[in-house]
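Incident log, support desk, overnight shift.

02:14 A customer reports that sequence design results differ from what the structure should imply. Their input is reproduced verbatim below. On-call engineer (initials T.W.) acknowledged and began investigating.
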């Protein structure tokens, strides 16, 4: 926990997902004393930890919507700051492929909507061009929409960079700090958490899958979270060479469908499914669903049969009864709600953050003084992208701990010396990729446990002989 003894803040952000981290950063670099509270042991402990890691252009977002505005503002800002923070991007482009006549008939409307949204490089390509670009696709593709601006991000280092920049400008954070209740008196919010009480004149709800529960602290929630589970398969690194672009289906009214994409870590990703469920805590994989996912993927890319699935995972998206973002401000209650941010949240987060700051500046009476820094500090994130230089390729890296993902000892030790050390095993795995390869930690977990030692509750505990 950063600034753990400080109880009074200008603004408290509830929720350490990608949107919460971006909002926290935006207020911190604008000069506010900001605190982020997260119920998990690291950032991205909820819905954000299981996304498809795509950088979206907004080509298929609802025209004129807040979602489109936030996606495109977020896209522009990410492109402007990524090199300053050492954030990787694999700009593969995307193809929305029609496999039957009904889908083919929908392609012109997809192009028209993209142009209406200002994404002017989107165009139709015929089947010959599809197979020139993607020679290993299954037979039967009729045509596609080409979206050159789509790409693949590192889904974890980007939000960590946002929070790190906030902390470097004086912001605080607390993990394992679930908000249990709150009260508003005399222009000040008091939030009761598992680590005591914190006060601020402004609260911003970015609680994601628990957004409606947190919203009820302020007032009866105007929306209800309806968790939507997405299951994913990760194929061995060799499979990634069999596609060049992100392969997207023609969307339906219910879902954008199952996609194929490279990951920034050199694997191939297949998914997600879209399954409604009541439970907002458990995201379990289902063998039968995964078998059907393999069938769908192999129908698009037959060579998938030649490769092993190295990982499966599932995540819950904070869907609501309406498809649009649920961002609302309540000046009289000194509260802002950022809810219903679904699959586009990784791209839109920076844009959402700008929008939320503007809501406060335009609609609220000043609640605190803001003193922006004369010059911003730009933290550099560790590089985990397969197509960039990694620690294992440099001298004096401490040796390789995880051979599947090529993680060095120095990389693991460095996260504990960072501005925001993880406080759980999941955070360590996401930040380093240790134990996330094809052996799932079978060969390296004992070494990782020795490095963790007593830094946090070690679920890989081993006896270290002296």
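02:41 Re-run completed on a clean worker. Output:
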């Amino acid at each position: 926990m950063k600034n753990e003894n400080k109880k009074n803040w200008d603004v408290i952000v509830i929720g350490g997902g990608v949107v919460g981290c971006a909002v926290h950063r935006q207020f911190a670099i604008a000069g506010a004393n900001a605190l982020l509270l997260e119920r998990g042991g690291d950032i991205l402990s909820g819905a954000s930890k299981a996304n498809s890691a795509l950088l979206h252009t907004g080509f298929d977002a609802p025209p004129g919507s807040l979602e489109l505005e936030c996606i495109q503002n977020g896209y522009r800002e990410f492109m402007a700051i990524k090199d300053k923070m050492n954030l990787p991007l694999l700009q593969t482009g995307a193809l929305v492929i029609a496999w039957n006549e009904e889908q083919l008939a929908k392609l012109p409307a997809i192009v028209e909507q993209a142009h209406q949204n200002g994404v002017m490089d989107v165009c139709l390509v015929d089947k010959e061009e599809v197979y020139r670009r993607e020679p290993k696709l299954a037979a039967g593709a009729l045509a596609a929409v080409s979206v050159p601006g789509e790409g693949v991000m590192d889904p974890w280092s980007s939000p960590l960079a946002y929070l790190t920049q906030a902390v470097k400008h004086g912001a605080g954070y607390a993990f394992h700090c679930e908000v249990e209740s709150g009260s508003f008196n005399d222009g000040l919010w008091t939030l009761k958490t598992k680590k005591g009480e914190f006060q601020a004149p402004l609260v911003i709800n970015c609680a994601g899958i628990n957004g409606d529960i947190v919203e009820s602290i302020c007032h009866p929630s105007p929306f209800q979270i309806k968790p939507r589970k997405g299951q994913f398969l990760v194929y061995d690194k060799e499979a990634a060479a069999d596609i060049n672009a992100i392969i997207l289906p023609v969307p339906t009214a219910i879902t954008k469908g199952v996609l194929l994409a490279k990951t920034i870590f050199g694997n191939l990703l297949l998914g997600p499914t879209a399954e409604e469920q009541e439970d907002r805590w458990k995201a379990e994989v289902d063998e039968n669903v995964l078998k059907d996912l393999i069938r769908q993927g192999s129908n698009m890319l037959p060579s998938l049969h030649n490769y092993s699935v190295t990982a499966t995972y599932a995540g819950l998206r904070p869907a609501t009864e309406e498809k649009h973002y649920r961002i609302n401000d309540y000046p009289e209650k000194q509260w802002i709600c950022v809810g219903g941010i679904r699959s586009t949240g990784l791209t839109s987060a920076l844009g959402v953050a700008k929008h939320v700051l503007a809501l406060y500046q335009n609609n609220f009476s000043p609640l605190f003084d803001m003193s922006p820094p004369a010059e911003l500090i730009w933290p550099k994130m560790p590089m985990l992208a397969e197509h960039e230089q990694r620690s294992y390729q440099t001298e004096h890296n401490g040796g390789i701990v995880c051979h599947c993902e090529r993680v060095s000892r120095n990389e693991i030790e460095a996260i504990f010396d960072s501005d925001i050390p993880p406080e759980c095993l999941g955070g360590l795995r996401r930040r380093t990729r240790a134990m996330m390869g094809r052996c799932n930690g079978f060969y390296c977990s004992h070494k990782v446990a020795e490095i963790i030692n007593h830094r946090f509750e070690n679920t890989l505990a081993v006896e270290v002989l002296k």
